[in-house]
Amino acid sequence: MSTGQSSRNRTALVTGASMGIGAGIALKLASLGYDLAIAHYAEPDEANAIAKQIREDYGRTCHVFQGDLAEPQMPGELAAFAVEALGSIDVLVNNAGVTRFKEIQSLDVAVMDRLYGSNFRAPMVLMQKISTHMAEQGLNGSIVNITSSRAERAYPGDGAYGGLKAALTRASQSAALDLSAHGIRVNCVAPGAIQVRNNPDWEPHFQELGKKIPLSRMGKPADIAEAVAWLASEASSYVTGTTIRVDGGLILPGMPERSGSTGWN
């Protein structure tokens, strides 16, 4: 680790951090002493609430950026904002993405373009911009891309979303090779079924789905955040180019949430 890293607070840029998995990751990193820049698409109230919590509960700095990362210029603008706001960036977490499911017969070009822009091009550009910054600053940085268990297991109507998550997984492996000479590590965390909404109306669905997962529950944003925090830390300093699947064993038997299975216990 460079002298510059050890003499200042560690920093992280987390995209899609206004709610759900991204918010959980941002809060976990803040609890570990990171100063943050967080990005969101169109949830200013939620993003500002997360930033306020980071400042008040953990005493960390948090800068908020709003923009649609599907727009070609926006990832570059976000990278420049984060570097200026934080000075240096030790960790990049590419979490933001769009979820759309359509069978191949009804999959239209506009949907494919939006998925490509948000779920593949944006993290690729951010990896490019932030890794260049890390290398120029001599930082042994960590990049974590949030993919999906769907990158490994095919589902109906999932050719675009799951296919692009698989592409990002594969691209991350090449990026890990490209950046290894700079001491920059690139890894993925692949969530399964994660409960990102605290809505009582959805609770029966979550409970029923949880019974069909080998570990007998749905995941929480905190489960993903723990994996990201480990990959961001020195504890994983010999880990690069890999994917940690955090899904409770969901895809091991196939697609249990689509089957008639009533449980694994």
Automatic annotation (TrEMBL):
<protein>
    <submittedName>
        <fullName>SDR family oxidoreductase</fullName>
    </submittedName>
</protein>
<dbReference type="InterPro" id="IPR036291">
    <property type="entry name" value="NAD(P)-bd_dom_sf"/>
</dbReference>
<dbReference type="GO" id="GO:0008206">
    <property type="term" value="P:bile acid metabolic process"/>
</dbReference>
<dbReference type="GO" id="GO:0016491">
    <property type="term" value="F:oxidoreductase activity"/>
</dbReference>
<dbReference type="Pfam" id="PF13561">
    <property type="entry name" value="adh_short_C2"/>
</dbReference>
<comment type="similarity">
    <text>Belongs to the short-chain dehydrogenases/reductases (SDR) family.</text>
</comment>
<keyword id="KW-0560">Oxidoreductase</keyword>
<dbReference type="InterPro" id="IPR002347">
    <property type="entry name" value="SDR_fam"/>
</dbReference>
